[in-house]
Amino acid sequence: MPATVLTKKTTGSIGRQVAPFPMQDPDVIACLAYKGGIGKTTLAEELAQVLNAVAIDFDWSKGGLTAGWGYREEQRVGAPLIDAFELGRPPTPIRGGLRKPDLIPGHTSFVEHQPSADKVAEAVNVWAHQLSRKLVIDTHPDGCPATYGAMAGARVVVTPVVLHTREMRALEQLLQEASDYPLLLIPYMVPRSPSQWAIDELGRLSQRYDVPVGPMVGYYAWIPTRRLRVAICSEPVAKKQQPFVDEIREVAKAVEAYGR
Fold this sequence. Notes:
Layout: E1 28-31, H1 40-50, E2 54-57, H2 65-69, H3 80-87, E3 103-104, H4 110-113, H5 117-131, E4 135-138, H6 145-153, E5 156-161, H7 165-178, E6 183-187, H8 196-209, H9 242-257
Helix pairs in contact: 1-9, 5-6, 7-8
C-alpha cells in the first residue's frame, strides 16, 4: 500500500498519497537541488549515516561532500567514480568507520567524464545490488547527465526546500521540469517562525505538481561553521545537536516509507 508522507506543524497538512514506484532492494536515494547553498550535501551525508548507506558524490565542486568527508583527490591516484563508469565495475567504497558514512568519492574532472543519464541510472542500481548496500547520491545542482541519471535511477529523490523568495522560485522551476520524478520535498533550515506566505506557497506548489512534503528540519546556526569531519548524526550526539538529529531521523523514516 502507498504510504502517506507526514509533515510537521509548520507546513500544515501538506502531503499526498504517494504512488508506488518500482521496489528496489538494495535502495538508491538521490538528493537534489537546483540551487546551491540550501543544505543538500549536509542532508545527503546525514541520511547516509542514519540509513547506514554508502554516500556517492556526483558533485564535482571542491566544497562538496568528498572534501568535507576528508578525501583529498590531489593526494590520491586515479578517480574511483570515473574509473567505475569507464571500466563497468562497481567502485569500492572508502570506509568511514562509525562516525561518517562509507564514501564513493567524487572528482573535479567528473564534469568532463560523466556518462549519459541512461548509463548512470543503470549503473547506480547495479552498484547497489553488487555492493548489497543502500546508496545515497549527492547530485550536482545543475541539470546535467549525472544528475538526471541519479534521479532516474532513484526510488526517491529528496529535495531540500528553503522557505525564501529566490529559493522558492528555484523550487518552482524544478517542479516544472522534474515533477514526474519521485520527489520528496523536505522543508529545510526552517526558522522558528517561518513566513506564512512561504508555507502557503509550498502548499500551493505541492498540490499543483502533486509532490509530497516530508518532515521539516529546522535552522541551526552552528552547522555552516562546523569544522568536524564526522556526521552530526553519529554517536555520541552532543546535546545541542540532538534536535537536528531527531529531525533527520524523521526524514529518514519518510524516505524509507516513500512509495512502500
